[in-house]
Specification:
Structural class: mainly alpha
Radius of gyration: 19 Å
Largest sheet: 2 strands, antiparallel
Strand order of the largest sheet: 1-2
CATH topology: Arp2/3 complex 21 kDa subunit ARPC3
Order of helices and strands: HHHEEHHHHHH
Length: about 210
């Protein structure tokens, strides 16, 4: 019994270190976003591009919509928060890697840019820019949630607009299959992204 307790204590040590150092981590992230060198931010943009690519592999296809559920929105929102105005660079890198290496969810290479999901891919750029521009690292949770929700809606509206333009789909149908099925799931993603972002940012205890 004592051996198990000791093993558990050792296993929890890394988490304890993170919790003790969370304020230092938060300050470091804030300095990185606001004062980091361009080279560092480009490198970080590449890292987030890889994160978005990995999240794209989380894919759930449902019979009532040709657009799959993926993890990309969550990664894009986090990129917007942590990279600030450089976040669209990260999404651009992801789009470039997807075109070159076929990392997009369910489509290979440039074919993704003419598929039913192309509008959402373009919307990722705008969403990253919205979060990066409107959410300060020292803001409150409520503002973070509101801005991220607006960014999420921007993605969905871009996707629906693309369905209308590229596939001559009636607006009502595009909204029904390209927006409505994702509202609840994306709201959950927003909640997760905002919570993670605020847990690693100054002022996270403020609800303002």
């Amino acid at each position: 019994m004592y051996i198990k307790a000791g093993a558990f204590s050792q296993a929890m040590q890394p988490l304890s270190v993170v919790l003790r150092k969370r304020h230092d981590i938060a300050r470091g992230l804030a300095r990185f976003r606001d004062e980091g060198r361009l080279v560092e931010k480009i490198a970080a943009s590449g890292a987030f591009a890889l994160l978005i690519a990995l999240s794209a592999q989380v894919r759930i296809v449902l019979p009532f919509t040709p657009v799959p559920f993926t993890g990309e929105v969550l990664a894009v929102l986090l990129a917007g928060f942590f990279l600030g105005r450089h976040a669209p660079i990260s999404v651009g890198m992801y789009l470039g890697m997807g075109a070159a290496f076929g990392w997009f969810s369910g489509f290979v290479g440039f074919a993704a840019f003419t598929s039913v999901t192309a509008g959402y891919l373009f919307g990722f750029v705008g969403a990253a820019a919205i979060v990066g521009a409107l959410v300060p690292t020292n803001g409150g949770l409520a503002r973070t949630v509101v801005v991220m929700e607006l960014a999420s809606l921007a993605i969905l509206l871009c996707g629906a607009a693309w369905l209308c333009v590229a596939f001559s789909m009636p607006l009502a149908e595009a909204f029904a299959i390209g927006v409505l099925p994702f509202l609840i799931v994306d709201a959950v993603k927003v909640g997760i992204a905002a919570t993670v972002a605020r847990s690693l940012a100054p002022g996270r205890s403020r609800i303002a």
